[in-house]
Specification:
The complex is a heterodimer of chains A (315) and B (383). Chain A is an alpha+beta fold. Chain A has a domain of 145 residues: Butyryl-CoA Dehydrogenase, subunit A, domain 3 (Up-down Bundle). Chain A is 53% helix and 11% strand. In chain A, the strands form 3 sheets. A 4-stranded mixed beta sheet of chain A has the order 1-3-4-7. In chain A, a hairpin with a 2-residue loop joins strand 8 and strand 9. In chain A, helix 7 runs antiparallel to helix 8 and helix 8 runs antiparallel to helix 10. Chain A is globular, with a radius of gyration of 19 Å. Chain B is α+β, with helices and mostly antiparallel strands and 383 residues long. Chain B contains 11 helices and 7 strands. In chain B, strands 2-3-7-6 form a 4-stranded antiparallel beta sheet, with no helix packed on it. A 3-stranded mixed beta sheet of chain B has the order 1-4-5. In chain B, a hairpin with a 2-residue loop joins strand 2 and strand 3. In chain B, helix 9 runs antiparallel to helix 10. The longest helix of chain B is centred in the C-terminal third of the chain and has 29 residues. Chain B starts with 6 loop residues before the first helix and ends in a 5-residue tail after the last helix. The mean pLDDT of chain B is 94. Classes of the chains: A alpha+beta (315), B alpha+beta (383). At the A-B interface, helix 6, strand 9, helix 7, helix 8 and helix 10 of A face helix 7, helix 8, helix 9 and helix 11 of B.
Chain lengths: 315, 383
């Protein structure tokens, strides 16, 4: 028994963290609101193999499992990376789709994130999944609360190729997407808490830093609490999928539910503690907050996942 | 990362499971109606049970054999707790000695104190209650005013302790006393070990919220505590060092007093109740939510134990666990009461458990204090 990120996993995570911190600052996320996201962070992730963690070594990947990739996805969440890392590296790559930047409609009931700039589209088709190149689909961009998501409604025109006809493979792909969303939500929660703890230390009212007031402390302690207990569930879900555990689907739902709860509690606390300064589009907080709102409902709502868990636990 | 138990651990689990099933049935057949360990009658019943645990080497699995333990690791302790609560065994009436005093003895006691105190704790021969809270020192423990005056051959104790769990049934008290009359706050306190049968010590039990005589107040009126009243000496960790010794125990109490096993067992019982009472979809969702939080606690504990075995300190992060399990315990019981509907007012394990759960956010440092600790020491917010 040993439940910790060991050195090699930690090394991949910290490499990803360093490059994301440098190449995907809040200004890059902000820029992605009005244009195609800058490719520097994405290309750097590709260079360290992060997009191909789940691709076999014989096919040029790292040949590792979800327990390596999920911490990287969490780091991407922490910087609100506007690229489809979950969709490309976690959902599509194990289906043999390696190379292009992939968008999918698996998690969004018709809404597809990164639709305006993705290179390939993994779309539900009957009981299976088909892959289309960008020129094979029509994309109708839609306005979303988080404009850096670049959502659209996507209709295939023609062509495409079958990726799988196996409903179990589709269900497993969905579960990996849920896991990615959970990891991103966890990262977003950490980002919002970090921003807010820093702000509460600097911001003075009534002659004191507002972080010295108990009401503020307790809001942020609640956020820290939610994060503390969501994190091991996210890591366990990665382990459960990687090792084909019988409780993998349930653990993925549990991770999403807990990470969604952490993001909701943290987001509310972060906005409240920032006060009016946070209630602007000039401050960076909204970049992370709005992403968390989107991901909390994408890939299955809290109730959807609670029901899945309820169905799988018995007396 | 390896989330499997070894073959030896699985064998231990099965051995324990069989022993618990067999021994609990035997003990229950013997005692008749089982009472709460927070009543005089129930305490006596459970002492009998504690001695069975000790004789079979299950009393303190993670202690060295020399002190009455089983030479187990923290993993073995976790397995023990899972099986213990799963089997529906009674709460440990010896837990203050086992889980609050003993860790301080291991850390701060002399060799002689370890040799003389620990085996008697494991064997439930000395029964320890904690003497920390006073009428004017609850959350603010550094405000204790009970005094210990040094005299020839011992100490003279004056003052009052209160909310002392099972104090009316125990034989000994460990607690903080102000040994330097000119000191304030954290300084000048000494951690003393006190037999409760000394002249000048009066113990009065009183009812807790649930009606059991589980609380006591302990009065010291010029009671003389000889230096050798307890084997190995009555001072733990040095004169004036009481705060340091007590704080190390507090972090143990907060962090590891509660294994997830207890809540895993409660949520299993809740699932059974949900089936019996025909939980609807909304209720099943609430149960699932509680189940997820319990399981998250289990997973977080696996991380914590891994970190402890890697040599990391638990530190202020123990406060996170305390807030989580205590509020989760209330949630579990509130769901149960809602499932029971009007029957929730009947005396029974769920109504009893509900009242007990409400103590969780109060004892071992209120959750308000714990949240301050999280904010200041984990998040670095200003004091």
């Amino acid at each position: 028994m040993r439940f910790a990120l060991d050195d090699d996993r930690e090394a991949l995570r910290s490499t990803a963290r360093e490059l994301l911190t440098e190449l995907c600052p809040a200004s890059a996320v902000r820029a992605a609101w009005t244009g195609v996201p800058d490719e520097a962070a994405w290309n750097a992730l590709a260079d360290i193999g992060a997009l191909a963690v789940l691709v076999p070594e014989s096919d040029g990947g790292l040949g590792l499992d979800e327990t390596y990739l999920v911490p990287v996805v969490e780091e991407a969440g922490q910087t609100a990376l506007p690229h489809p890392l979950t969709e490309t590296a976690l959902v599509a790559a194990p289906l043999g789709v390696a190379g292009p930047m992939v968008a999918t409609d698996l998690g969004g009931a018709g809404l597809v994130a990164s639709a305006t700039f993705a290179e390939a589209f993994l779309l539900v088709s009957g009981r299976g999944l088909r892959l289309y190149e960008a020129h094979e689909v029509d994309v109708e961009p839609v306005e979303t609360v988080d404009a850096s998501r670049h959502c659209g409604r996507v209709r295939p025109r023609a062509g495409g190729r079958s990726v799988t006809e196996d409903p179990e493979a589709v269900a497993a792909a969905f579960d990996r997407g849920v896991l990615g969303a959970a990891a991103e939500l966890l990262g977003l929660s950490r980002a919002m808490l970090g921003l807010t703890a820093g702000y509460a230390t600097q911001r003075h009212q009534f002659g004191k830093p507002i972080g010295s007031f108990q009401a503020v402390k307790h809001l942020l302690a609640n956020a820290r609490l939610e994060i503390e207990f969501a994190a091991p569930a996210v890591l366990y879900a990665a382990y459960a999928i990687a090792h084909g555990q019988p409780d993998a689907s349930r653990s993925v739902s549990q991770a999403k539910w807990l990470a969604g709860s952490a993001a909701a509690v943290t987001g509310r606390a972060a906005l409240q503690c920032h006060g009016a300064i946070g209630y602007t589009t000039e401050h960076d907080l909204h970049l992370y907050l709005k992403r968390s709102w989107a991901l909390a409902r994408a890939w299955g709502s809290a109730d959807f996942h609670a029901d899945r868990v309820a169905a799988s636990i018995s007396a | 990362m390896d989330l499997t138990w070894s073959a030896a651990q699985e064998r231990t689990r099965l051995e324990l499971r069989g022993w618990l099933e067999h021994s609990l049935a035997g003990w229950r057949a013997e005692i008749g109606t089982e009472r709460s360990g927070d009543t005089r009658e129930g305490f006596a019943q459970q002492l009998l049970w504690e001695r069975r645990l000790y004789e079979a080497d299950w009393s303190a699995v993670s202690w060295p054999r020399a002190y009455g333990g089983r030479d187990g690791t923290l993993w073995d302790w976790l397995i023990f707790e899972e099986e213990y609560w799963r089997a529906g065994a009674p709460q440990r009436v010896t837990q203050n000695g086992l889980q609050i005093l003993a860790p301080s003895v291991f850390e701060h006691g002399t060799l002689e104190q370890k040799d003389l105190l620990l085996p008697r704790i494991a064997a439930a021969e000395d029964l320890w209650c904690q003497g920390w809270s006073e009428p004017n020192a609850g959350s603010d423990l550094a405000g204790v005013s009970s005094r210990a005056r040094r005299v020839d051959g011992g100490w003279v104790l004056d003052g009052q302790k209160t909310w002392t769990t099972r104090g009316a049934f125990c034989t000994h008290l460990f607690g903080l006393f102000r040994s330097d009359p000119d000191s304030e706050r954290h300084r000048g306190l000494t951690y003393l070990l006190v037999p409760l049968d000394l002249d000048g010590v009066t113990v009065r039990g009183f009812g807790r919220l649930d009606g059991d005589e589980g609380f006591a107040e302990v009065f010291f009126d010029g009671a003389f505590l000889p230096d050798d009243a307890v084997g190995g000496g009555v001072v733990l960790g040095g004169v004036g060092e009481g705060w340091r010794v007590a704080v190390s125990a507090a972090s143990t109490e907060r962090g590891l007093l509660r294994s997830p096993g207890r809540y895993q067992a409660t949520v299993s019982d809740l699932l059974v109740l949900g089936e019996e009472r025909g939980a609807d979809a909304a209720m099943r969702r609430r149960i699932a939510a509680a189940w997820m939080r319990v399981d998250a606690y289990r997973l977080q504990t696996l991380q914590t134990v891994t970190a402890l075995l890697d040599g990391r300190d638990l530190g202020s992060e123990a406060s996170l666990a305390k807030v989580w399990w205590s509020e989760l315990d209330i949630e579990l019981h509130e769901i149960a009461l809602d499932l029971l509907g009007p029957d929730a007012e009947l005396q029974g394990p769920w109504s009893k458990g509900h009242q007990f759960s409400l103590a969780g956010p109060i004892y071992a440092g209120t959750n308000e204090v714990q949240r301050n600790i999280v904010a200041e020491r984990v998040l670095g917010l200003p004091r």
